[in-house]
Amino acid sequence: MPTLLKAALLGILQGLVEFLPVSSTAHLLIGSRLLGYDDPGGVFTVMIQLGSIFAVMWLYREKLIAVLAGLPSRPEARHFALMIGLATVPALVAGGLLSKFVRGVLYESFGVIAIAFIAGGIVMLLVERFRPKPDLFDVDSLPFGRALAIGSFQALALVPGVSRSGGTIVAAMAMRVDRAAAAEFTFFLAMPTMAAAFGKNLLEVRHDLGSARGLEIAVGFVMAFIASALVVRPFLNFVKRSGFAPFAWYRILFGIALLAAVAAGWT
Known about the structure:
Layout: H1 3-17, H2 24-35, H3 43-47, H4 49-59, H5 61-70, H6 75-104, H7 110-130, H8 144-152, H9 164-174, H10 179-205, H11 211-242, H12 245-263
Helix pairs in contact: 1-2, 1-11, 4-10, 4-11, 5-6, 6-8, 6-10, 7-9, 7-12, 8-9, 9-10, 10-11
């Protein structure tokens, strides 16, 4: 299979799962192994995620423009910007300290990914079943303290299989945030977090990006943008109707299958 076709397929996979609570990083690592796509250090995996971030920025462009335009004069715009900024800090600190270890060690361990899948699914089921009654239904009114606490769970997503969106959504629901608002908050939180991850990785590998490698990333980026743009709205509608239990069961079953593959020596 041509390398650019592999990059396109992985970009589509990234776009489809980035905002689902199932860990896009783990899916890309597994997909890369199945397709025989070489991604040293997970650089391609991290960098094409920016395509998904651009997609959600495009979908929420009116909101973002309103916040930026209102910063000088509207307290609610400043509240929103500061809330997102504070919630992003824990992931940035953890990423700066641990990203090399994570990409160099944990990205190579399918056993770790499988366990993270199963544990995340169980936690998601427990929160769906026993979560407190929501008292917050609008992202704009999220208090600073609660936003920071939710954002801290993004740091767990450094472990492949945990899921950045899954961690923040489950944490938000446990903190009395409505399902749809929790999902929307994680969309906004992804923008600065993933943009920072992209910038850091770009600086680290800028001297190793030849034209062929850059073209692969560009193809993956575009396909991730298109796939994410198509999946975000349906995902929100599905969550409002059915909650997160289907994703939890998917995680558990996928994790068990992956553990079995590891035990059989198939990975």
